[in-house]
Design goal:
Number of helices: 10
Structural class: alpha/beta
Number of strands: 10
CATH class of the largest domain: Alpha Beta
Helix content: 25-40%
CATH architecture of the largest domain: 3-Layer(aba) Sandwich
CATH superfamily of the largest domain: P-loop containing nucleotide triphosphate hydrolases
Oligomer: single chain
Strand order of the largest sheet: 6-7-8-3-9-10
CATH topology of the largest domain: Rossmann fold
């Protein structure tokens, strides 16, 4: 089943074209990555999918239904969650309060049970549940941003540049975590500058440059492509 389908998406910033005829898909339980250099349009792409930027042309569908007229907060209620670049948490709220904010669209009685489940994925956050989020380390804030999204019980998780500025040991831990989430049938679209690690954990990948998709295919194949090797894998 196709969870997300982006069809010939075109987006402008004022008079500047940021994306041109971009198309991609994410299947159920699939981890798909979009790699590319700074300014390639990766963040523009994920913000457009989330409804945070207007689209000039094209279409976005989620589970076969158009998403173009759905407000960003309504997309969360449809089980799409977004982890923005920079681990944006509510700095004056505690870790636990931040996590409960992730469940603001829910009206069921399983929030406390899910809180314990997400804590099991992030034991460090449970240890710091009463700590103000703004005092956490950069890596801990990134963990909290992902954990908060999981509290909405997403079927599709959009993650934008989660490894920027983090220590290698934390980057490895986060990549292990997203592999575990996919094993739990959460579909993930990963926007990432660390092309090597992103391709190693993903099923398929897209190379975005200057607002256009230049390459796409199985991640194992992209890692063997000379253009990807020379520009992104240090070959």
């Amino acid at each position: 089943m196709t969870m997300l389908s982006v069809n010939e998406l075109t987006v402008y910033y004022g008079k500047i074209q940021a994306l041109e005829n971009v198309s991609l898909t994410v299947g159920e339980g699939e981890l798909v990555t979009v790699i590319g250099s700074n300014g390639a349009g990766k963040t523009t792409l994920v913000k457009s999918i989330m409804g945070l930027l207007p689209i000039k042309a094209g279409n976005i569908t989620f589970k076969g239904k158009t998403f173009c007229d759905v407000k960003p907060w309504e997309r969360v209620a449809h089980k799409v969650a977004y982890v923005p670049e920079g681990a944006r948490v509510f700095p004056d709220l505690t870790v636990k309060e931040n996590m409960k904010m992730g469940a603001f669209t829910r009206r069921d009685d399983k929030i406390e049970a899910d809180l314990e489940y997400v804590y099991s994925l992030f034991p460090r956050l449970q240890e710091r549940s009463r700590q103000v989020a703004g005092t956490l380390s950069g890596g801990e804030q990134q963990m909290l941003a992902i954990a908060r999204c999981l509290m909405s019980r997403p079927q599709l998780l959009l993650i934008d540049e989660m490894s920027i500025g983090l220590m290698p040991v934390l980057i490895t831990r986060l990549f292990e975590l997203i592999k575990d989430l996919v094993a739990r049938k959460i579909s993930i679209l990963l926007i990432e500058q660390n092309a090597k690690m992103a391709l190693e954990v993903s099923d398929r990948g897209y190379l975005l440059e200057n607002g256009r998709i230049l390459l796409s295919g199985m991640s194992t194949d992209l890692m063997q492509d000379s253009r990807v090797i020379s520009a992104y894998l240090g070959g």
